[in-house]
Amino acid sequence: MDLALQVQINRRKTFAIISHPDAGKTTMTEKLLLYGGAIHMAGSVKARKASRHATSDWMEIEKQRGISVTSSVMQFEYNNYCINILDTPGHQDFSEDTYRTLCAADAAVMLLDGAKGVEAQTIKLFTVCRKRKIPIFTFINKMDRAAKNPFDLIDELEKVLGIRSTPVNWPIGTDGDFKGVYDRQTETVLLYDENAGDHGASMVTCRASDADDDALMERLGPHHFDTLRSDMELLDMAGDPFDMEKILQGELTPVFFGSAITNFGVETFLKAFLEMAPSPVARMTSRGKILPDSTDFSGFIFKIQANMDPNHRDRMAFLRICSGKYEKAMQVKHVRIDKKITLAQPQQFMAQDRTIVEEAYAGDIIGIFDPGIFRIGDTLTNATESFTFEGIPVFPPEFFARVMPLDSMKRKQFLKGIEQLSEEGAIQLYKQPDIGTETYIMGVVGVLQFEVLEHRLKNEYGVDIMRTNLNYRMARWAVNKDNTPVDIKKLTITSTSLVVLSKDEEPVILFESEWGISWALDRNPGLLLEDIHNE
Ligand SMILES: Nc1nc2c(ncn2[C@@H]2O[C@H](COP(=O)(O)OP(=O)(O)OP(=O)(O)O)[C@@H](O)[C@H]2O)c(=O)[nH]1
Ligand SMILES: [Mg+2]
Prior knowledge:
Rossmann fold, 12 helices, 7-stranded mixed β-sheet, Alpha-Beta Plaits, alpha+beta, 3 domains, binds magnesium ion, 8-stranded antiparallel β-sheet, 26% helix, 535 residues
């Protein structure tokens, strides 16, 4: 075994932050970067023009609207750990991006808004983590404001998400009178001082006091002191004990309370999380499991993003390294196209910014320049006998629109833009046969993606578009059972359905309803309509 490799892999922690929109993922990420020394002043997600924006919301539209629309990757060091953090968008219209990002993570930090508890989108994202059996750590945020009763929150985790939890710390004062948290392990209280620090822009020092201290009674007052006492008795009796094995299996979630915006409880969370969270583990491939400390280098692409650097207009493919070590100018096989390529100048990310990496290890996420040869899910490896990683789920689009450039002189930029953006996987691009090349039909999983598309085409490609929304709700690939090519001219479909061609010139039919699908299947014997297409 290569000891140096092992040491490097063990100190790596790669995790995604997930939650319902607005729970505070980007704010939390910013604070983690602050503690890691990666930034010196935290930006805000809704800062006005002149002030700082959060590092991970780097895209123009994110800064304008104060929401995340795409996941971003940041690497930093803290206490000798090498951390790869993935901030994901919460809005359901971008959940495909979040799901893909989760494939690249070894653990998830689930944020809840203390006043809202488990919300709709939390349930969906949690289900994905569950399926992948990745450990989930819960941070209940916004405790600086009135929150739900902490026992009710714990109860929700169990009733709504079906996961047992073990509180690592416990809040004192949840009716808008937040006093701090009690750390159950060290039996100390971390006092929240409203006036301490500058509320979020830089690090806050928290005062710890011994929980038995008389001074604490004085500080908290008899009401909070007694409540804490009885809460602890109840928790010790009825709560789930801490069990590392169960945590790593994703069956038990450690729960932390805090407030990202005031930095309260963020560093204590980070420390505890780093100790508990797993380092990279074995991953499944077409040739069985591959261990992270294998001497073979391997990884897969989970995200492609164009124009991250407005000055260069290049495109990055994000590679999650699953085994081995990357060394400078390494040669690897691009398994899908069966070609050797050189990883000349991989980059390490700090959201939009990047620096060249000399070496990288299993667990790391690196960026590779993409001249148009990568697709999401591609495997790269230097193993003598190649293999591929398990596929990344593709979501069928549910909303469709016809788009064309407003100015026909801008057709070239328009085509480049829609092609590149569709390669990122956020939109599906279809052509309508026999209607010329100017109009295209786009399919997206959520309507907000149309707005992002419009915004990015204008911002990154200088093209204004005209968009007409269509009534279709489903897209199905048309294939013949006997594998002969489908003759689209001979297809019999309802007048409310439409035949289009995919990017690879394959026939796809757009339908308004299930009824249209069964109608088409009845009238065209031998036809199959696939919702997920295997390339
Ligand atoms: N009071 C309070 N507000 C917070 C806290 N953390 C975040 N916020 C605010 O909540 C809002 C949403 O925060 P974000 O960090 O953008 O949330 P997000 O989860 O990244 O949102 P999306 O990426 O759009 O899903 C912002 O206005 C933050 O300032 C907190 O601890 N307390
Ligand atoms: Mg965000």
